[in-house]
Amino acid sequence: MTDSADPRRAIMPIAWSWIVPPELQMPDDRLSPNGSAGRHDRPTYDPTQRAYLVPRANAGPEAIRFALDAIYDDEHLHGTMWLANPAIVVPEWNDDRTPIDLELDGERLIEGKDFRRGYEKDASGTSLVLWIDRVIDLNDSDEHRIEIEIAPHRD
Question: Are 2 and 11 contacting, i.e. CB atoms less than 8 angstroms apart?
Fold first, then answer.
């Protein structure tokens, strides 16, 4: 799984990103899963898929912006704020032809190098599935968060 001289150091970020995943936060409070006031008051990290499920107000391909925030205040969790190769599922994207643009903290990622894209069809439509090839140490960030933007490709 790793060529590291110390496999524990290489594997621990992956384990912590699954054990205590950063919280998905939407900029629109009505869509945010935080608190139970919004209409999407369900968990947005599915441990069975090890993927984030992005809440949507509308079906179809549209720009989506959200943050993954390691909001841990517990001293015992210090040093455990990692995001390792996150998978993201956008339900009802319903377009498997248009390329997408993906940005991570304002950095445009390159498909095939920085991320992979796929689709999953079910009774409610076609979901966009993304896998980002990054291990991010949120312990090093003052805000302990990253911003992600997904949008249909713009020329």
Answer: yes
Determine the structural domain holding residue 35 and report its residue range: 7-152
> What is the radius of gyration, based on Cα positions, of the chain?
16
How far apart CA 109 and CA 103 sit, in angstroms, is 6
CATH code, domain carrying 82: 2.60.40
Q: 3-state DSSP call for residue 98?
A: coil
- Report the DSSP beta bridge partners of residue 136: 83
CA gap 97, 134 in Å, rounded: 25
Q: Is residue 2 part of a domain?
A: no
Q: Which tens digit of pLDDT belongs to each residue from 47-84?
A: 899 999 998 878 999 999 988 887 665 566 655 678 88
Q: How does strand 51-53 pair with strand 87-90?
A: parallel
Is 1 within the bounds of a domain?
Answer: no
Count of CA atoms in the C-beta half-sphere (13 A) of 134: 21
Which two structure tokens, joined as six digits, stand for 29? 């409070």
CB 20 within 8 A of CB 74: no
The number of domains in the chain is 1
Query: Domain for residue 73, yes or no?
Result: yes
The C-alpha atoms of residue 51 and residue 82 are separated, in whole angstroms, by 14
Provide the whole-model pTM.
Answer: 0.82
